């Protein structure tokens, strides 16, 4: 089996950069296409008039900064790939549910492998913050490589 199109979600954490490094190694072996994505949480109050009336300016500033951060993270991750001679594409995606955005992107790009980091949260933290990696595993039939360190 060879992997021709690898998708790597990157959130700026140390573990996500570790996932990028693993994906780059796989891409080198199989001469794969590598796509790095970063997700920006979409505004859950899109249709709430009161929300935009009272907090519109601070939220706009928040989203501007979130997109700038996502672009910076993808630039840093791309440099890892370029240093290894691997061509890479990047995308910043709006998302309410990260796992849905990741899985939908795999379909659009015809991805055949997802490589992603897992923070390894347990107990209350996992319940409170959730696990995007677990949700992706449950939402796709594609191979998913989970990097834990």
Describe what you observe in this structure:
Helix 3 crosses helix 5. The chain is of the alpha/beta class. Strands 3-2-1-4-5 form a five-stranded parallel β-sheet, sandwiched between helices. Helix content is 53%, strand content 21%. The protein has five helices and five strands. It has helices spanning 14-30, 49-83, 98-109, 123-129, 132-139, and strands at 5-9, 33-41, 88-95, 113-117, 144-147. Helix 1 (14-30) links the parallel strand 1 and strand 2. 29% of the residues are buried. The radius of gyration is 16 Å and the shape is globular. The protein has a single domain, classed as HUPs (Rossmann fold). Residues 3-148 form the UspA domain. InterPro entries: Rossmann-like_a/b/a_fold, Universal_stress_UspA, UspA. It comes from Acinetobacter kookii.
Fold blueprint:
Layout: E1 5-9, H1 14-30, E2 33-41, H2 49-83, E3 88-95, H3 98-109, E4 113-117, H4 123-129, H5 132-139, E5 144-147
Parallel strand pairs: 1-2, 1-4, 2-3, 4-5
Helix pairs in contact: 3-5
Organism: Acinetobacter kookii
Protein name: Universal stress protein
Pfam families: Usp
List keywords for this structure.
149 residues, alpha/beta, 5-stranded parallel sheet, 5 helices
The CATH superfamily is HUPs
Strand/helix succession: EHEHEHEHHE
Main structural class: alpha/beta
Percent of residues in β-strands: 15-25%
Helical stretch tally: 5
Using the alpha-carbon principal axes, give the shape.
globular
User: How confident overall, as mean pLDDT?
Assistant: 85
The major sheet is characterized as: 5 strands, parallel
Distance between the termini: 25 Å
Helix % is 40-55%
DSSP strand count: 5
How many domains make up the 3D coordinates? 1
Radius of gyration over all CA atoms, rounded: 16 Å
The CATH architecture comes to 3-Layer(aba) Sandwich
CATH class: Alpha Beta
Q: Name the poorly predicted regions.
A: 124-129
């Amino acid at each position: 089996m060879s992997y021709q199109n690898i998708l790597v979600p990157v959130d700026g954490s140390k573990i996500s950069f570790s996932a990028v490094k693993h994906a780059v190694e796989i891409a080198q072996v199989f001469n794969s296409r590598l796509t790095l994505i970063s997700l920006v949480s979409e505004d859950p109050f899109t249709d709430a008039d009161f929300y935009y009336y009272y907090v519109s300016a601070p939220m706009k500033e928040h989203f501007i900064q979130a997109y700038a951060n996502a672009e910076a993270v993808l630039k840093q991750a791309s440099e890892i790939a370029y240093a290894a001679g691997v061509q890479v594409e990047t995308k910043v995606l709006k998302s309410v549910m990260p796992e849905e955005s990741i899985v939908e992107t795999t379909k659009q790009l015809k991805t055949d492998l997802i490589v992603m980091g897992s923070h390894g949260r347990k107990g209350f933290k996992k319940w409170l913050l959730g696990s995007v990696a677990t949700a992706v595993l449950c939402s796709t039939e594609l191979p998913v490589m989970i990097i834990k360190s």
